[in-house]
Sequence to fold (431 residues):
Amino acid sequence: MQLTIYRGTKEIGGSCVEVATGSTRIILDAGLPLVKPDREPFDPKVMLGKSTAALIDEKVIPNVPGLFTEAKSPDAILLSHSHLDHAGLLHLTKPEIPIYATSGTSKMMLAGAVFSRQKELERARHREVSAKETFSIGDMTITPFAVDHSSFGSVAYLIEAEGKRLLYSGDIRKHGRKPGMARDLVAEVGPMNIDVLLMEGTHFGPGRSSKGLNEFELEEEIVGHIKNAPGIVLACFSPIDVDRLVTYYRACQRTGRTFVADAYAAFVMHLVASEASIPRPTRDSGVRVYFNQAFENRQLTSVRERFEPDRIQLAQVLAEPTKYLMVFRPSMTELDFANVLPASSRCLYSYWKGYLEKPDWVELRESLSQVGGDFIPAHASGHIYVEDIVELVREINPKQIVPIHTFEPTGFQQHFANVQLLEDGEPYRIG
Fold:
């Protein structure tokens, strides 16, 4: 078995990995880069109008034989989850290559396509996988394992072939609302004598968290922020982070506020209600749906009809602002509130702090200050903390650890002796 990381050995995001035997090739994720080589944010708009060959030359697309260009195609793509830094290049891969992913990942990509102009997972290419249900591709035996991450439907993959076992963590954490997933993973693969653990290390490096809040601690923090809020609470988070959606909903239930979902959040709640412990977006569940102006401009008739019975008008929210927590986007400041937010608004920010320098967030903070409001970061990472990486790796006890999805792969060497550092594009034969 041979492993080649085409992107991710010294980079967070843009993940793309090949695992091959003498007769079978599979690709793990095909992600859009998050940063340029100088680590400045990558803007996907630079791709517009450019050929695949040009994007390969510019290293936007990794040069994987047969994945994007005319050469023998890989046998399959295994998708760990829906985030663009893992799935954002799928639409450029050759259409004959099947894509294996969970139904949850497919649903999150559908939601992104409807509301964020992203690409959905093509039905003709999708091969649905389920946790702990083993399947075969060529001479490889593959078992997905559900993992806790900030995108619903995420999995790790165990790949067995030619007498070797490789475990790809994908993006994972132990501090979400489902810590039992990590325990189940360890219980299953710990006794297997894993040859290579391909392990994400997002939190290694300066300025990153050795340890931080878990989702339950974050819920307590958010409850406190809601209880002492003098006006409306505006919640900024990604709806496909279903854990965070549940956290805000539970905080509303505990503080007597009504959860006002936008159409995007309501759509995600509708999609996953059959698979997860999450309420449907109905007034009977303490949820109302607000159609913000960006949604109204899209004229998504079928979505509108689905949530119309539980709709709430902005005037109703503004009449009694202390009764509501409202899912909020910075664009709503201008489009919905005509650049004047409600007095004493409290905005809770549940994204990575690195986004705060972007103009829309800077402008939102200025708008809040003008009405006597405040802006409070309230976040728990979607990625595993360093202390938990150390614990998880020791529990799995692999023969070799190969870092991925990290700017600081040498951080692993501070904790483990059996680390194999690779370069992008460097083949590594699992011995």
About this structure: Residues 227 and 333 are 24 Å apart (CA to CA). The chain has a mean pLDDT of 96.
